[in-house]
Design goal:
alpha+beta; Alpha-D-Glucose-1,6-Bisphosphate, Chain A, domain 4; 2 helices; 8 strands
């Protein structure tokens, strides 16, 4: 079991970041890495636990992810992939935790995942997922403010 974690500060208020993350079918609005998102059930409200989305990337396969939990008070969002991930792993679950800073309008974004994979595949998965998490954090910062 591999664990991947990226923790960074962005100059975007936590409420705005949380709103973007719980808009489960709308990540393609702020992330240019995604070329489309289809939400099941169609029209599900933001933060609907159990909702499934199909995310399309221009350079890769479509992935299906289920929103497992979302807590507006704790500012956490967790999700997992439905079916086999498009990388050499048996299971993938992620958690995004947000911590608002008190000295300015900024947020600590703590993005982590656990991946059930063969030991030989873990270094490559850790590198790839670290890149994705950093990319998503960069895109949230660009969309809502600027990176710190």
């Amino acid at each position: 079991m591999a664990t991947v974690r990226v923790c960074r500060v962005i100059d975007v208020p936590a409420a705005k970041v949380f709103g973007a993350l719980v808009d489960w079918g709308g990540w393609d609005k702020w992330s240019p890495m995604l070329s489309g998102a289809v939400l099941e059930p169609a029209g599900a409200l933001p933060g609907t636990v159990g909702a499934v989305r199909s995310l399309s990337r221009g350079d890769g396969p479509t992935v299906r992810e289920r929103l497992l939990a979302c807590d507006e008070e704790a500012l956490t969002v967790s999700y997992g992939m439905e079916g086999k991930p498009p990388f050499p792993a048996r299971r993938y679950n992620a958690l995004v935790r947000l911590l608002p800073l008190t000295d300015r309008e900024a947020t600590v974004v703590d993005w982590s995942a656990s991946v059930d994979a063969d030991e030989a595949d873990e270094p490559g998965l850790i590198k790839a997922l670290t890149g994705y998490f950093n990319g998503f954090i960069d895109q949230l910062a660009a969309w809502g403010g600027s990176a710190a």
